[in-house]
Specification:
The complex is a heterodimer of chains A (113) and B (115). Chain A has 113 residues and is mainly beta. Chain A has no helices and eleven strands. Chain A is 0% helix and 54% strand. Chains A and B meet through β5 of A and β5 and β9 of B.
Chain lengths: 113, 115
């Protein structure tokens, strides 16, 4: 069993839809949770970062962490064609040393006009 | 500000050939990483470095070697390429200590095909 599970999709939605992307994990010691966005043939870039449980909002994006269920989500409101990308969840035990991030396999999202 | 730059961007090798991927960062980051990305597998850490002159093994180090002779450069070497090393390779860097938010800064990737 992988430490981090993520549905690879692809997920296809119409412009303006609410998108929900999810990851589950097995290690209850993970403390830091991130979402990276990766456009085609580009490197990943950090989109959202959350420490421990709770919600974090940034514009149209909301990251949610439920540590009791070992489940994290990324919601995208009013989705746009420019949101079409692969979304990778990532998590780590701590950030005092090097960033030993464990990544999900990524969910490919396509937003069509 | 170029960020993290990888060269070459594309390469085709024959089994048994050797090559080196170069990563350069201009953000004065202490930590640097090499990942490989394969379909359905996500990003997997090959080797990493916490400072000039230091390297350490990651999750999938076999068949690769690295060197960090200068702070801004991190080299990934394949001594005898195998088809299983066909992948997209990403270099990343990050801040240490107090500035560290867990964020990795990635290059655009190097696509390697081993025939």
């Amino acid at each position: 069993q992988k430490e981090v599970e993520q549905d690879p999709g692809p997920l296809s939605v119409p412009e303006g839809a609410i998108v929900s992307l999810n990851c589950t994990y097995s290690n209850s010691a993970f403390q830091y949770f991130m979402w990276y966005r990766q456009y085609s043939r580009k490197g990943p870039e950090l989109l959202m970062y959350t420490y421990s449980s709770g919600n974090k909002e940034d514009g149209r994006f909301t990251a949610q962490v439920d540590k009791s269920s070992k489940y994290i989500s990324l919601f995208i409101r009013d989705s746009q064609p420019s949101d079409s990308a692969t979304y990778l969840c990532a998590m780590t035990l701590g950030i005092r040393g090097y960033n030993k991030l464990i990544f999900g396999a990524g969910t490919r999202l396509a937003v069509h006009p | 500000n170029a960020g993290v730059t990888q060269t070459p961007k594309f390469r085709v090798l024959k089994t048994g050939q050797s090559m080196t991927l170069l990563c350069a960062q201009d953000m004065n980051h202490e930590y640097m990483y090499w990942y490989r990305q394969d379909p359905g597998m996500g990003l997997r850490l090959i080797h990493y470095s916490v400072g000039e002159g230091t390297t350490a093994k990651g999750e999938v180090p076999d068949g690769y070697n690295v060197s960090r002779l200068k702070k801004q450069n991190f080299l990934l070497g394949l001594e005898s390429a195998a088809p299983s090393q066909t992948s997209v390779y990403f270099c990343a860097s990050s801040y240490p200590g107090q500035k560290n938010t867990g964020e990795l800064f990635f290059g655009e990737g190097s696509r390697l095909t081993v025939l």
